[in-house]
Specification:
The chain is α+β, with helices and mostly antiparallel strands and 227 residues long. It has a domain of 141 residues: Peptide Deformylase (Alpha-Beta Complex). The strands form two sheets. It has a five-stranded antiparallel β-sheet with strand order 1-2-3-6-7, with helices on both faces. α1 packs across α2. It starts with 14 loop residues before the first helix and ends in a 13-residue tail after the last helix. The protein binds zinc ion. Zinc ion (ZN) binds next to α4.
Amino acid sequence: MASVVDQTNPNDRPIAERVEELLAREGPLPIVAAGDPVLRRPAEPFEGQLGPALLARFVGALRRTMHAAPGVGLAAPQVGVPLRIAVVEDPAPVPADVRAARGRVPLPFRVLVNPSYEAVGAERAAFFEGCLSVPGWQAVVARHARVRLRALDEHGVAVDEEFGGWPARIVQHETDHLDGTLYLDRAELRSLSSNEAVAERWTQPTPERAAAALGFALPKRPSGPPA
Ligand code: ZN
């Protein structure tokens, strides 16, 4: 039976104290894996729980952890901090055919505070993606091809911007983390592939071949004007 006041429960301590403790360690922050409830609860809106100096240090640590992983986005709950904060950055080191098919253009570093998104248009784009909290696996997720993102930056300045291509995928994935949603919740589960299987079989710019071989559906391509 739990005692009324459980001093050992890290969730009972103020978030700032827990962040200070995380930042006291050397090196990248430990990344929380699927199965930890922190990844399944909506994160708290950021309302100054960390002072400006601590927020800057935390954002720096998130960025270093994302680089070390390596990854193109990291949300605070992935390091066990239940705040609506994420970082994104993608240098997009991919071949030209992949860049063209996936819209994988470079996304400069940015901090998303209290982000939310909505679809722009009805088009959907389906590609393999992965998550640092689900190591070793990838799956095809059909996402909005374009989204409008509203957020604050790390200085509290409002952001209201449209994203397309791979950057749209990244901001949806990271914002979903802050709502307790993992990409697997939206994935075509029959596409689930180990990193080894993806490297061996599914590196084509688009997932049509994987869809045919593994037996999952892809969204219909929007019909354009006759060529
Ligand atoms: Zn993720």
